[in-house]
């Protein structure tokens, strides 16, 4: 199954470098978009301005890769990314292999989040019984 990637990066040279590297490294369908569509089942690779235009909360935030400016990332964008649950934030100065690794990991998370149900926490069922409570007036015997 070919993974999809929506690429929303204003710097056209950087976006072209990512697109080229993805085409050489993996079987990904890469679509450059001005406005990412979070309803699509794909990884989203966004720069800070594209992320700022994204409506929050983001469904399945584990599939988003946020690319930030190294010298002065916007603290509000980083705070919003943290609150949204985004797990992949990469500097645009990072080596391209690092960016590709983050994108491929996000694409894998898309595949697993839609195919395998994840059990989390304890879910009560209707057939469960309440635990019995020990009697209050318990007589204790000899503990020899």
Can you characterise this structure?
The chain has 144 residues and is α/β, with parallel strands linked by helices. The termini are far apart. It has a five-stranded parallel sheet. Residues 115-128 have low confidence and may be disordered. Helix 1 (12-25) links the parallel strand 1 and strand 2 (28-32). It has four helices and five strands; from the N terminus they run βαββαβαβα. The protein has helices spanning 12-25, 48-53, 75-84, 96-115; strands spanning 3-8, 28-32, 43-47, 64-68, 88-91. Helix 1 crosses helix 4. The protein has a single domain, classed as Response regulator (Rossmann fold), CATH 3.40.50. 35% of the residues lie in helices and 17% in strands. It is globular.
For the residues shown, what is the average pLDDT? 81
CATH topology: Rossmann fold
As a percent range, the share of strand residues is 15-25%
Largest sheet: 5 strands, parallel
- Write the H/E string, N to C: EHEEHEHEH
Which regions are unreliable across 5 or more consecutive residues at pLDDT < 50? 115-128
What is the second-level CATH architecture? 3-Layer(aba) Sandwich
Instruction: Tell me the CATH superfamily.
Output: Response regulator
Count of individual domains:
1
């Amino acid at each position: 199954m070919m993974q999809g990637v929506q690429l929303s990066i204003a710097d056209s040279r950087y976006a072209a470098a990512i697109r080229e590297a993805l085409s050489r490294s993996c079987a990904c369908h890469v679509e450059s978009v001005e406005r990412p569509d979070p309803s699509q089942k794909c990884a989203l690779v966004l720069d800070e301005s594209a992320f700022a235009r994204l409506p929050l909360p983001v469904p399945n935030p584990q599939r988003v890769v946020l690319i930030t400016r190294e010298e002065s990332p916007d603290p509000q964008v980083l705070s919003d990314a943290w609150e949204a649950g985004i797990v992949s934030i990469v500097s645009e100065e990072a080596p391209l292999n690092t960016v590709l690794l983050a994108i491929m990991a996000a694409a894998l998370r898309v595949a697993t989040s839609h195919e395998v149900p994840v059990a989390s926490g304890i879910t009560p069922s209707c057939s469960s019984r309440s635990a019995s409570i020990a009697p209050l007036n318990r007589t204790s015997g000899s503990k020899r």
